[in-house]
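Hi everyone,

Forwarding the result from last night's run.
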Amino acid sequence: MGAVREPLRRGVLGSLLLLLGLCGAREVHLPPGPLFRVEGTAISIPCSVSEYEGPTLQHFEWFLYRPTAPEISIGIVSTRDPAFPYALFSPRVQSGEVSVQRLHGDAVELRVARLRAEDAGVYECYTPTTDSMYHGNYSSKVVLKVIPDMLWVLAPTPRPHLRSRMAGTSPLQLSLSEGQELQLSCTAQSQTQQHTHLSVSFGVSAPDAPVGHQTLQEVVGVRRDFAVEAGGSFAERYRAGELSVAKAGSEQYKLAIGQVRPGDAGTYHCTVGEWIQDPDSSWQLIAEKRAALAQVTVQSIASQLAVSASPPRVRLSAGDALELLCNLSGPVPPAPHVAYAVSWEVGEGDRLLVAQLDTDGVAVLGESYANSQVGWRQVSLQKLTPDPGSYRLRIESAQPRDAGTYCCVARAYIRSPNAQLREVASSSSQGLKVHMKSEAVVLEVYAWLPVPATYRGDTAELLCNISVESTQAVHVAVSWWVEVTVGEEEPQGRMVASVSREGVAELGRRASGGDMSLDKVGPQCHRLRLHGVQPSDEGRYHCAVTSWVRYPDRSWYNAGAVKSNSVAVYPYARVMDTLFIPLIVGVASALFTGITILATITCCFMRRLRKR
């Protein structure tokens, strides 16, 4: 029994050693086959070796076994012997059409720039040994099948209703205005017998630029897995719904850009790729073709928008109606997707808004034409003709401050599918000079004190005499101010009281907190009274007068303002006030002395009584 067990034990041990040796054997790796590639396209076949001995830099040799002679190996290329290629491949290797590219020390890639039908067959990747003993496999094989090119891409013929021309094989010529819709289509079909997927991409390149992956900017495309993606700068527009791609039928693909922009000009192409899934589950692009669809030019609205205004010069008198016209010219025929906003501005440099008519036809007045000071002036901005149209500005009762340089400003907007407006152009007219003949208003103001000396506790009176020279009815607003000095700073005015042009009085707050009143003691004489003046009311007072003229549209015009001289208010102390303090001191001293004497006498008297 022992003699039988020993050979059995040795056999098992030998088998284990053999298995352990196989686990560390050299192995050459190629992708699983068969590989299908299209005639005329490029292919790269990777090859690597592992579990080897010797240097990390391994050499590789490639062989081809053609279907017509499957037993005969044809040397293609080697990493160590330049003279390795057979006569069939030597010219192609020398020209670079066939090459071996080292990826790592133990990995290379066979590259064929342009496959031929006779390149089909079994490819073998062989690694000369660097091991101490032959162990494992030193080559691996993969089947390559070269199939004919059955991919077609067709550009459409021009449609009659588009302004276009076709010259020979040149692409369609389209001229669009900014904001118009661009529609292009291409037909893609493949009759490859193997199961493949198509990807279709619409792209644009600069006019007359060479077409390639570096110069062609993708607009939008359908991927091999049917996902739709937009490229680069078009992604945001795709999300906003401004462009789309759709499949019509089994072979036609359509691109639609809802609102073209000047930057969309260029040559549009349709690029179709054919993809096949290799046995290792990876997808490979086996064919790609491109067709020029159209040469598109986009005329910007900014280049077509022009604004003119009339009349060039206006002379009128205050109270007359001021009327100005603004004429717009834009794309012809007028585009329904373009909206305009027109405004009139006045001034040099930083202009002030007079009125604006927005894209919805709503008129808005400038702040200086509708506020509590001037009232609500009768200013209108009206559209007279259809887009782009003529616009009329009318100010019913012109005021002297309406004189100046007027300018009409037009802004063009494109309305996106989500109803948002995007400004695409703006233009201004030449300046119009408006001269105003107005009656001058001359104001003179004088402030004075009817009682020069004011004592504490009395009522101080301040008078403001106003002289107005004008042929118009003038309303005045009067305000009283006191100059306040804080530290070493310049005196600052603080309003004490005011009377509006409508005769409404508004009282501020005195420093002493006392009462005050305002009244009118003459046709043009206003009085301020400070009741019970105190030392804190001391200061220099002045009155300020603003003249206002009211026009037929019930609006107000500030005809001028003037400041009077300043008068000093100094509350003097009364004579009795100067004697009051010494009197109190004297009475207090007398009381203190009397109390002291009385206490002393009372104390002495009480001592004598105790002695008795």
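Residues 1-22, 160-168 have pLDDT under 50 and may be disordered.

Cheers,
N.
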